[in-house]
C-alpha cells in the first residue's frame, strides 16, 4: 500500500495551481442524470472520488468521454469530460458502489425527478460521524415522493412526477440542498427551499443547472427558489476552484513559512478561513488570478476557531488548522460543530509530538516548539492533509500511511508540494 514520505524542514516557495473542486465536481456529474443531452464539465479534477462516481454513473447508463490535451499539460492535469445519460438503464444504486462514497447517494434526486423512481443504498463515506439521510427524505417527501427504507435501501417513488413545494430544512445540509435543488428542477410548479446551504458548491451547481435550462434563483443565500421545467438540456460548465485545497495549502505555507501563490482560485471562496489565517500572523493577499500566502519568520499566533456552515469556518479545514495550531505560540481552542466524530487526527498529531486535549466537541491545542517525524495513519480525507502539513515541519521523517484517503480529494499533492521545495514523495511498499 502506498504511503507519503515527508522529510520536514523545508519552506514552501513558488506557485501551486488549484484544481477544480471535488465537492462541486461530484454534484455536477450527478446533474448529468437529469437530461438525455450531454453535460460537459471542464476543469474536472482527477481524483479517486471522481473515478468512483464515474463508475456509479456508468451503472445507471451514463456514457462518459474524456477530451482535451492530457500529456503536455504541465501545470494541472484537469480534464474536460462529457457525461451523456441518453438512456437511464438502471434506477438502482447498489450498496457495493454507494457504500464507498457518501455523495453517490445524491443520485436519488435526479433519478427520482427524471424517472419517477429510484432505489439507492444508504451511503458510506468518511468515518466522521453518523451522517443520517433524514433531511433528504424530508425534502423529497415534501416534493410528493413516496419513500420507504427497506433492507438498507431508500426506495423513492413519484409515479406521476414531483410537485413544487415550500420546504424548510431543519438543519443546514449541503448534500440535501443539492439533491432537493436538482429534484425540483423537473417538478411541476415552484419550489422554495428555506435554510438552504450557502456553500459555493451549491451556487456552482445552480449555475450549471441554469445553463441546462433550469430556473433557479437565490442559490448562495439561505432561500432558493426553483421554478420547475419539463426538461433540461445539455450544457458546458467549468468546475469552480477547490476552496478546501486552497485553504489546505494556505495553511501549509503558514506552517512552513515561505511565499506561495495559489493560482486559479479566489479569496471569495474562503474568506473566513483566510481571515483566521491572517490572525495567526500570516500575510494573505489577493493577487491577479489567485491568492498569495506569505510568512517570513515570526511566531504562529494561536487563534480559536469554531466550524460552521458557509460562510463560517469550514469543517473541511478544521483538521488542517489544528495541524497549524500545534506549532502556535500559545493555546488555541478548536470546536467542531458539524460532525460529531471529526477529531481522529488528534491522536495521530500527538504521535508527532503535538499537545492536544479533547473535551467533547472542543480540542485544546497547546503549541509546542517542535514536532518530530513519525509513522502516522491517515483516517479520513481532510485529517490526512493535516498530517501532511504537520509532517512538512516535523524534524526528520514522517510517513503518512493509508494514502488512498488523500487520493480521494487532493490532485497531485506530492507533485504540487515538491515543486515548491518540500521533500515529499510517494513510496509503494
Ligand atoms: C458535504 O457533505 C461535503 N461533501 C463534506 O466534505 C463537508 O464536510 C460537508 O458537506 C459539510 O460542509 C461533499 O460535498 C461531497 P452535510 P454532506 O449534509 O453534504 C447532518 C470532504 O472531506 N445531516 O452538509 O454529506 C450531517 O450528519 C467531505 O470533502 C443530517 O443530520 O454534509 C452533518 O452533521 C467530508 N441529516 C450536517 O448535517 C441528513 O439527512 C452537515 O452535513 C444530512 C445531513
Would you give an account of this structure?
The chain has 429 residues and is an alpha/beta fold. The protein folds into 2 domains: 2-19 and 241-428, UDP-n-acetylglucosamine1-carboxyvinyl-transferase, Chain (Alpha-beta prism), CATH 3.65.10.10; 22-238, Enolpyruvate transferase domain (UDP-n-acetylglucosamine1-carboxyvinyl-transferase, Chain, Alpha-beta prism), CATH 3.65.10.10. Helices cover 31% and strands 27% of the residues. The chain contains 14 helices and 24 strands. The strands form 6 sheets. A 4-stranded mixed beta sheet has the order 22-23-1-24. It has a 4-stranded mixed beta sheet with strand order 2-15-17-16. Strands 4-5-3-14 form a 4-stranded mixed beta sheet, covered by helices on one side. Helix 1 (22-31) packs parallel to helix 7. It is elongated. The model has no long low-confidence stretch (mean pLDDT 94). Bound molecules: ligand EPZ. Ligand EPZ binds at residues 23, 26, 102-103, 126, 129, 131-136, 171, 173-176, 197, 315-316, 338-339, 381-382, 409.
Amino acid at each position: 500500500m502506498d504511503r507519503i514520505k515527508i522529510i520536514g524542514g523545508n519552506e514552501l516557495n513558488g506557485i501551486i495551481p488549484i484544481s477544480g473542486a471535488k465537492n462541486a465536481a461530484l454534484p455536477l456529474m450527478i446533474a448529468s442524470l437529469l437530461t438525455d443531452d450531454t453535460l460537459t464539465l471542464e476543469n474536472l479534477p482527477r481524483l479517486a472520488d471522481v473515478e468512483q462516481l464515474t463508475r456509479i454513473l456508468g451503472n445507471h447508463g451514463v456514457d462518459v468521454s474524456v477530451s482535451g490535451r492530457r500529456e503536455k499539460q504541465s501545470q494541472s492535469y484537469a480534464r474536460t469530460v462529457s457525461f451523456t445519460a441518453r438512456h437511464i438503464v438502471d434506477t438502482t444504486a447498489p450498496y457495493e458502489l454507494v457504500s464507498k462514497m457518501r455523495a453517490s447517494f445524491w443520485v436519488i434526486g435526479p433519478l427520482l425527478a427524471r424517472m419517477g423512481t429510484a432505489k439507492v443504498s444508504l451511503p458510506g463515506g468518511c468515518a466522521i460521524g453518523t451522517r443520517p439521510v433524514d433531511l433528504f427524505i424530508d425534502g423529497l417527501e415534501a416534493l410528493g415522493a413516496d419513500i420507504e427504507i427497506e433492507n438498507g435501501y431508500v426506495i423513492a417513488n413519484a409515479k406521476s412526477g414531483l410537485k413544487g413545494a415550500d420546504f424548510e430544512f431543519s438543519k443546514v445540509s449541503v448534500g440535501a440542498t443539492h439533491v432537493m435543488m436538482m429534484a425540483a428542477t423537473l417538478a411541476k410548479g415552484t419550489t422554495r427551499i428555506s435554510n438552504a446551504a450557502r456553500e459555493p458548491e451549491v451556487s456552482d451547481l445552480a449555475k450549471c443547472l441554469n445553463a441546462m435550462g433550469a430556473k433557479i434563483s437565490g442559490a448562495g443565500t439561505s432561500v432558493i427558489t426553483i421554478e420547475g421545467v419539463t426538461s433540461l438540456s445539455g450544457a458546458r460548465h467549468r468546475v469552480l476552484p477547490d476552496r478546501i485545497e486552497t485553504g489546505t495549502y494556505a495553511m501549509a505555507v503558514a506552517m512552513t513559512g515561505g511565499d506561495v501563490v495559489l493560482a486559479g482560485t479566489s479569496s471569495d471562496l474562503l474568506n473566513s478561513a483566510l481571515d483566521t489565517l491572517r490572525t495567526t500572523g500570516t500575510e494573505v493577499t489577493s493577487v491577479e488570478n489567485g491568492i498569495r500566502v506569505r510568512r517570513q519568520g515570526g511566531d504562529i499566533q494561536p487563534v480559536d476557531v469554531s466550524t460552521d456552515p458557509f460562510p463560517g469556518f469550514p469543517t473541511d479545514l478544521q483538521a488542517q488548522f489544528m495541524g497549524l495550531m500545534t506549532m502556535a505560540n500559545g493555546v488555541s481552542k478548536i470546536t467542531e460543530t458539524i460532525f460529531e466524530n471529526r477529531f481522529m487526527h488528534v491522536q495521530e498529531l500527538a504521535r508527532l509530538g503535538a499537545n492536544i486535549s479533547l473535551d467533547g466537541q472542543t480540542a485544546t491545542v497547546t503549541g509546542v516548539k517542535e514536532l518530530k517525524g513519525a509513522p502516522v495513519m491517515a483516517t479520513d480525507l481532510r485529517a490526512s492533509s493535516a498530517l501532511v502539513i504537520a509532517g512538512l515541519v516535523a524534524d526528520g521523517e514522517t510517513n503518512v500511511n493509508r494514502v488512498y484517503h488523500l487520493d480521494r480529494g487532493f490532485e497531485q499533492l506530492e507533485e504540487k508540494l515538491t515543486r515548491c521545495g518540500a521533500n515529499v514523495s510517494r513510496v509503494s511498499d
